Protein: AAA family ATPase
Organism: Neorhizobium phenanthreniclasticum
Amino acid sequence: MTNTAPQLDSNIDELRDTYREKRIFGICDSLAAHDHAITNVVIAPAKPDGTPDWDSADPANLEPLPADEWPSDHAVAARACVLVDRIDGCSPDTSMLIYLREDGQPNVEQIDGPEMDANIAVGIICRDIGARPPAPREPNNIVKSFYQMLHHKAVDAGRSAANDNVPGASKKPRERFTVDWFGDIEEDQSKEEILKGVFGVDEFTMISGKPGSGKSVIATDLACHIAAGMEWHGRPVKQGLVIYIAAERKALTKRRMMAFRKYHGVDDIPLVVLGGMMDLTSGVADANAIIATVKAAEGVCGYPCRWIIVDTLTRTFGPGDQNASKDMTKFVRACDHIRESVEGTHLTVIHHTGWTGERGKGAIDLDGAVDASFLVKKEAGGYLLECDGTNDGDEGVITRFRMEGVQVGEKDGQPTMAPVAVPTDGKTAGEHLVAKLEGHAAEALDVLRKLYDGDVAVPQGQWRHGFYGEYPDVEENTLKTRFRRAKEKLIGTGLVAETEAGFIVP
């Protein structure tokens, strides 16, 4: 037995070194493959007792990996880590260090550069290595198995493991459920909203529409109003940071926002357009990166995030099948994870409908998960946004709008235009003209509409006879003048058209 323990220590050290080597090189290779940063395996400084001194590590005292090979010395191998520089979206001075904690999980720390870069860098790193943002938590099953294997080897050799040698043994397990007793529910349960009667805090909604229906235009208009704290189409808003995830047509989204700036005369508002390839079905890595970006943006602008818009579901669905219930459930869970991790926010996903325009495409799990769903449709007088289902908001038509072009640039002498949404009453130009008609012209149009079946033109004599019948006590010469003037006015405004066979209402 006297020689077993030293042999066991050697075996355990070799197992640990093998595990560290695979994890450290795996992290470095994964980050290099994504090409969002420059990575190198390095050796951190040591404390007087030879253990890693992570707290004092900085780019100046990190040593290159000896001969680019994994150290044979166990103490040196324990200090191997990954240095990450030149991270997309961060200052050139920003450096991050990734090392393995005692439980085998990676820990990411900033060792140089502006503090405001930390959340952005952590989000990118965690996304690219497929890890969650580093935080104390229970080790995963792979790590548990690894340490259980070490534990069993020690026991087999006659050792007894202390409780504090088992990863997580001293930690209080996180509660899986939240519990609220009936009698403890607070008396005031009023609903907090970011848009009166439409969007509530901590809710999940969907805006759908056919291609070209104006769904992204109205979403952009909403985003700008909430970020600016401007009343939207007569509804009060709660101002805050808005994150617009433009996974589809980011450049067009930016032009629309520039059009809003010029049309409404606003300048700097807490609104971020977030672009890039995102996958919200394969895991939570990209969801975590979004969360980190949102929190970093909150720190920069000083406003809490009120609204996160995902435009569109299709462009953020990754390799999943939208018609498969299991994949749609994964997408919903990722959205819930983002929303629950950013306190006090609302999350909306923009989605395409089928050509019937009745509902968002794909599995119905999304329909059941949202607190409200909205449709954007074209109509004769422009466009409308309507709520076709909600738990406790306003249903029916929310607003009607038209699009007005605003010049946002010029290329080769030709203006570049982008639309803004302008509220309307939903009436067509013709309907507005009709509303302005008075007296004999209005009466003549009403008579013609009753006679015209939408196919066969109405002869002038038949129309005139009907018009005369509305004024039985007026002399014919007077009626003849009234009819002529009414007919000319209606044709001049385009409300009535004359054909060879008679008159029609276009």
